[in-house]
Amino acid sequence: MTxxxxxxxxxxxxxxxxxxxVALHLAHAGLKPLVxxxxxxxxxxxxxxxxxxxTLSRPPQEIPLALASLEMWHHIGDLVDDDCGFEQYGxxxxxENETDIEVLHRRLALMRELGYSHEEWVDAGEVRxxxxxxxxxxxxxxxxxxxxxxxxYRTTMAFRRKAESLGARYIEGVQIVRTEHVAGCWRAxxxxxxxxxxxxxxxxxxxxxxxxxxxWDEPVPLEAVAPMMLVTMPMRRFIDPVVLGTSRPLSFKQxxxxxxxxxxxxxxxxxxxxxxxxxxxxxxxxxxRMVCELFPHMxxxxxxxxxxxxxxxxxxxxxxxxxxxxxxxxxxAFGFCTHGFxxxxxxxxxxxxxxxxxxxxxxxAPFDIGRFxxxxxxxxxxxxxxx
Amino acid sequence: xxxxxxxxxxxxTGTAALAxxxxxxxxxxxxxxxxxxxxxxxxxxxxxxxxxxxxxxxxATPVRDRKVLGDDYWHGESLVGAFRRSAxxxxxxxxxxxxxxxxxxxxxxxxxxxxxxxxxxxLLTARHVLLATGAQERPFPIPxxxxxxxITAGAAQILLxxxxxxxxxxxxxxxxxxxxxxxxxxxxxxxxRIDALLETAPPRALLRALPYxxxxxxxxxxxxxxxxxxxxRAAVPVIKAVEGLQAQGHDKLERVSYSFRGRTHxxxxxxxxxxxxxxxxxxxxxxxxxxxxxxxxxDCWQPQVDSWGNTTVAGIGMAGDGAGIAGALAAEHRGRLAxxxxxxxxxxxxxxxxxxEATVHRRLLAKATLGRAFFDVLCxxxxxYRRPAGNTIICRCEEVTAVQVRDTVKLGCSGxxxxxxxxxxxxxxxxxxxxxxxxAEIIADELRIPVEDVGxxxxxxxxKPLTLGELASLPQTAASHEAVIRLPADQEIRLAQPEMP
Lengths: 387, 501
Description:
Helix content of chain A: 25-40%
Shape of chain B: globular
Shape of chain A: globular
Distance between the termini of chain B: 33 Å
Strand content of chain A: 25-35%
Oligomer: heterodimer
Distance between the termini of chain A: 47 Å
Largest sheet of chain B: 7 strands, mixed
Radius of gyration of chain A: 21 Å
């Protein structure tokens, strides 16, 4: 049975933050993008992540994008007419021991060598002053003072609403099962049988994006992961910056409403096909022990909720951003390896530039999808672990 | 990708063939029968003593005059006696905060139950789990329902049964459902004065219920119910078909206002006791991922179960009101049927024996549920009190109002999870127990679609709040054993190892 074809200027597969940002920037330029989301916009990584707006400890290849994005975050209201719950208190990676100090000092040296100054060393006294509840054995840390945090679901919704107000359309609950490029036009066929058509297609399908890429004959080794998060009941204000561990997987922050958000990349069990995750209590317990070791008064904090969203990891820790190497007028933006939230604003701009002008001023060569078909081209990341 | 069913060290956890969660009539009857059939059975219950809500404090209530709480309450003694004589192990004060099906030993598809007793987290690995989590009251969001002095009939019954506490000063009961009248009757028995009983059921409810009246007349509810109704109506001013119910006052309840036949009335009151029926307490079943169906007669979700109480999740059964409201007597029989189902599933009996032994329980179950359809329809909660508007608070934890939910739906948040992410309603410690149904109904109202198409919140861990310290007291994984902890002596954190339950 032939179904009615829905036409647009650009098809965007995936209604997360990156899909929304691409839609917003395209709509801003006068195009009519159509975002197709298999669940609802912001269902996974975009809506339920820790909300870290972090340039700190980024892989060096990502730093130019991350810094450009941070500027956009500082004026996020101008972009999406909503402050997105943006709060700038910096992000701080603490050193718990001598080994940590060494790791952070090496990182600092690398940043200086590359000409970056957004990461600074803070000594133990300053860390204790910033984080009064922390164990007195803390050794110091690295801080990015302009880093921040925002509300992820609100942000994803704000991008969507602004994009829609400029002429973008969203379709939710529709899964694309097939795409084809016929007579100069992309057609995306949904599980419902509906067909969506546009001259250009963008793959922003997050943890499911490898499936789209595979149909374009460019398979990628994407690993779906589900980092677990915990949030406590509201507590008296005791920290301002986002706190990160160095040798141990921890990210920790207190939101404006007093709740404390605990993440760090410990993983839940996941079922990509069922869109579902299941928490691993023993891993969560390990995370809880770590938090209580760093902040002893947290032993009495009441856990309110725990959850995990599904995200896409790439083996080299870098996202895939750029044009398809195998298909015309097809683009990718996925695989953000659990640190894509901060990049949302800039990636939309980059993709819109690629779609409209065919080039971008941002250095996106390291994110080329071609690196997986030509392993020699793969660029290595720094030695730091990125939660 | 992290693989499922990864085996790991469970040496510091307890095990059981059957774990029953909840010690109300369904849980007690199920645990008793399962133990009698030879299943190593553990009954986990949040309270310090067995009985659930309906038979709460039955072994310890200070209300010793048996006439006050009535024969139906004291029937619970028979269940407790049989349970105590059985070999089932009772873990009192156990708050179950999660059940997982994926992280346990791969061999048999066991389930892992995470719970806390006295601030200490423990794990119990069970081959079969029976949830007997009972009912909770339907949210009754009216203006002012969060004022001190406004409580639910269920809370009022807890106070009465556990502590013999009854209202002092002017008291008004309002709403619909058998429990409201039962409470009124128990209060009268205890010598409490009730200033008014405001019935919210519309006049046409009786007409709608009439087709089911014959079974009702033949049921044991008829005689008992009529007697109770007569006693209450003889002693309490009853006003029917009340609309626009409001609790009013500054820092606490001072007045109850309502309209009757288009005229507004106000009664001075220090206590307002609200009730509009009970719904299954499905948070645990939801959290495990069991499929639920919408019951359009009772306007609530209930887990999809077969005739043995098996949910759509293998190895997880559900019995009693948690599997669909049918009352305490029915719960007991459903518990026994579920015990037979579990015994069969675990190989303790063959199909023929299971079916043979089930016959008597099925007959008693049919008898116990006869006539319920009549008052299910008669006591249906009116739409006005299920789909509030304006500034009425619907989420007590995060203080979200009805109009905020309605506006958020208009923004494009078309499901409970989107509304939750946007407004934080359902994110509080009650995990949506107070607002879940209301939010789903309001969304259905705004979108003009059936509630079953709206769906429900994804239930997050933990099902009940626990502290970070409690979570930290769970058994350690190999990786964390290796972690070096350097702390000064006076800052040392003691992370005690859990004991076997």
